Structure to design on (406 residues):
């Protein structure tokens, strides 16, 4: 199947190329006149890199390589500082290009380093997880984690190009594919009913890395994100709809201390948001049923019972979609009809929590997200664990205490 190209129409429009075996097109995705590159990569996906580097060097490019820690450990100021040091040693200029090869953690780091070096150099993203292909690598949100919380330090910096090579998914654990599917289903729910039809046509088949259904889903989810980002690059308006399911999802991530995969938390978060939407009189209950069936069909969790509303609620009150003391949450009226609702009463949210936790088997979802691959971390940075604030129900405007920004 020939690759698809989706344009993100920002100030400087860029292409997202989706297909299999795309590394042959790598040079074509570089900004014109590129001569020097620094590739920041997750060692887990290093396989194709030597051949790519050989080819680039044969063709006259100066290529620098920097392996960064796998997964979330990459999003650390010590890793960013190591990258800045290497860029300084290589006398990197604004005519040179940073490339991020890895999952959303790597592309967030590479984007952040590119945004901050010389106040902005081009970055080309090569996402290698499903989540990064349909979400993290597109749209220009970059960042790292600090003691103040996840993604609390970052910048908007659109990539120069995104190359989504489905071949990378061949080595991705199924649980990571399932997690990425949550963001695809979210894109369907908020903007493209066709996505939901494709998932329904073969929920298990969509999880197969080589499946044409998966190609179609990636293409459609990228198109949704591209369209929304083009309209609202700096997330000051419509882009908020992409946070459907994230208010409760982020609360789960915090309460479970980031031991859940992002997509898993967002899946339960969408069921929660649908429960709220029904209770607020916005959504027909049949659509709530569709949420449960579709998410469960691809193996995503649809229920969660921490027994800790008193911790979830303050985490939701600190959500970054809130403005000042006004809480904001994305709800759904119908497929493709999201709405942002303000200050939903706690009693209604607590009822929705009762509903998502009342489902049989809704004990804390038995997931473990520690990478299946243990790689030495040359930076000695710990896996990101936010400081657990025992007093999570502090003031709304208080210390973020290990919060999460989207
Ligand atoms: N910038 C944005 O708009 C945005 C949006 C969503 C999420 N994010 C960020 O993305 C990050 C999560 O991204 P992710 O889920 O891609 O996680 P990740 O980058 O942490 O990767 C997950 C795991 O998969 C491994 N991996 C990556 N590619 C692989 C492959 N092809 N084969 C085998 N293993 C592979 C990684 O080493 C890691 O252990 C979070 O930090 C989140 O904050 C950013």
């Amino acid at each position: 199947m020939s690759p698809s190209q989706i344009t993100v129409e920002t100030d400087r429009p860029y292409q997202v190329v989706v297909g299999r075996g795309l590394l042959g097109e790598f040079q074509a995705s570089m900004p014109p006149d590129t001569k020097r590159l620094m590739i920041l990569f997750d060692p887990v996906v290093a396989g194709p890199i030597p051949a790519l580097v050989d080819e680039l060097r044969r063709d006259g490019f100066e290529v620098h390589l920097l392996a960064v820690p796998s997964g979330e450990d990459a999003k650390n100021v010590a890793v960013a500082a190591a990258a800045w040091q290497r860029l300084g040693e290589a006398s990197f200029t604004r005519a040179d290009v940073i490339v991020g090869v890895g999952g959303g953690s790597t592309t967030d780091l590479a984007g952040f380093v590119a945004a901050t070096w010389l106040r902005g150099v081009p970055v080309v993203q090569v996402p290698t997880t499903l989540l990064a292909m349909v979400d993290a690598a597109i749209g220009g949100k970059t960042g790292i984690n600090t003691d103040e919380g996840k993604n609390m330090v970052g910048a908007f910096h659109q990539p120069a190009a995104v190359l989504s090579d489905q071949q990378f998914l061949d080595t991705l654990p199924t649980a990571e594919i399932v997690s990425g599917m949550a963001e695809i289903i979210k894109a369907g729910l908020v903007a493209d009913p066709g996505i939901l039809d494709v998932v329904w046509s073969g929920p298990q088949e969509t999880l197969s890395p080589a499946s044409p259904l998966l190609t179609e889903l990636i293409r459609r989810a990228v198109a949704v994100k591209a369209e929304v980002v083009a309209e609202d690059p700096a997330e000051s308006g419509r882009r908020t709809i992409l946070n459907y399911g994230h208010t409760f999802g982020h609360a789960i991530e915090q309460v479970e201390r980031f031991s859940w995969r992002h997509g898993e938390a967002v899946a339960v978060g969408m069921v929660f948001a649908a429960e709220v939407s029904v209770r607020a009189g916005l959504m027909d209950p049949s659509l709530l049923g569709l949420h449960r069936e579709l998410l469960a069909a691809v193996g995503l969790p649809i229920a969660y019972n921490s027994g800790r509303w008193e911790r979830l609620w303050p985490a939701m009150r600190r959500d970054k979609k809130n403005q000042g003391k006004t809480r904001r949450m994305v709800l759904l009226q119908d497929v493709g009809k999201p709405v942002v609702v303000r200050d939903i009463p706690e009693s209604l949210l607590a009822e929705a929590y009762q509903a998502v936790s009342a489902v049989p088997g809704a004990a804390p979802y038995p997931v473990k997200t520690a990478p299946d691959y243990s790689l030495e971390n040359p930076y000695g940075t710990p896996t990101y664990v936010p400081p657990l604030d025992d007093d999570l129900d502090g003031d709304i405007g208080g210390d973020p205490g290990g919060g999460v920004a989207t």
Notes: The chain has twelve helices and twelve strands.
